Amino acid sequence: KVLRKAREIYWAKPYEEFHGGGEKGKRYVLEQYLNLVTFGPGIQGVAQAARSFFGKNLNEITKGEAAFIVSLLKNPLTYSNPTHFNRTSGRVTDYILPRMRENGMFDRNNPQEYEEALTNFLPSSDYQRPKSGLLDEAFIFIRNQARNWVRKAQMFLERPVEIKVETSVDH
User: Fold this and answer.
1) What is the C-alpha separation between 99 and 77, in angstroms, rounded?
2) How far is CA 20 from the centre of its chain?
3) 105: pLDDT confidence band, cut at 50, 70 and 90?
4) Largest CA distance in the chain
5) Quick one: CA dihedral 43, 16, 9, 68, positive or negative?
6) pLDDT by residue (tens digit) across 3-30?
7) What's this model's pTM, rounded to 2 decimal places?
8) What DSSP line would sit under 85-150, residue for residue?
């Protein structure tokens, strides 16, 4: 994990510069990360997390629901499990939502907005975590192979590289 993080940090700066630098480059890198990161078994990317946990499109989730999804990033396999939602709840109420408020993401003239987010952010009680299946394993294998190829190409070319992988199976 540490080596992977070190590689990500090493490539982040040139990748940012390659995509416009500054805030534009950082925004692009964050967008790509959020579209690729795993939020639990069979849940790839933030849009699929919104659909899986809340049955909503990404632009329809509340700030509390967004905080829940962000809370999964620390340990997706554990925190996405309904039996561990109490740990997830603590991360949301004690850390993520207060930081969102400090960063001006809530209307200061409407304290009810923050209170609503504090109490209404968990998936419904009938939420069932997706099972990881053969299709998920194949997708993960292909994704990892592509990432390894990109890393090698970046090291050889000494610059960021992008590829697009298309398969005949939707995931």
Assistant:
1) 23
2) 22
3) very high
4) 54
5) negative
6) 777 777 777 777 777 767 777 777 887 8
7) 0.67
8) HHHHHHHIIIIIHHHHHHTT-S-TT-HHHHHHHHHS-SPPTT--PPPP-HHHHHHHHHHHHHHHHH
